[in-house]
Here is the input.
Amino acid sequence: MEKKIKLKTLNPFISCKICRGYLIDATTIVECLHTFCKSCLVKHLEESPNNACPDCNLIIHQSHPLQYISHDRTMQDIVYKLVPNLQDNEMNRERAFYKARNLPCPKDIPQDNKESDEMESKLNEAHQESDYHRMDEQVNLCLECSSNSNLKNLKRRFIRCSSQATITQLKKFVAKKVLNGIEKYREIDILCNDELLGKDHTLKFVYVTRWRFKDPPLRLQYRTTIFD
Here is the structure.
């Protein structure tokens, strides 16, 4: 016999923790995987002084948090399937919003398939020709295994990345490469000049405070936090 589950028991998993309503345009933070309504999350990040997740308070990114959130289509599909009439009601509200401002609703504008194909082709060409480095200031670094650690060495020690990347992000990179799991990043320490670095330090901060008068690249070491 199938057991029926009441919708209210699922509400904590399909609701936005900012507005307390059901998720609309579900958007997930890449770093911690917490999900919110897109409009709620964007407004929060625009007003937040520290660019932190509203749920766990994790720093998303020091300067460009909006680049580290992503539309969660799967979650939104689940919400629409679970909550009766939610999708239709939201669509009606969106149409009313644009109608009150004498504007066409973007979802009601028919798209020419030929124009769409041409636009997609142009975007693909631009993507292929683009520089994959972000517009941020870049830092060259050498990431090596600490001499007193039993972790394996990275295949590529020399890395070029954004100066706004944090030590936590670096720990996740190392965990994925040497521990085969990004979720194990708490088992990694990052050091500079044998000094343990704070998880929220940016590479620019580390460079300026620990490597300012030394030749590049910035040399960092990693080790495990678990000792035999």
Observations:
- The chain has a mean pLDDT of 85.
- The chain has seven helices and eight strands.
- The longest helix spans residues 113-129.
- Helices lie at 7-14, 38-47, 73-82, 86-100, 113-129, 167-178, 203-210.
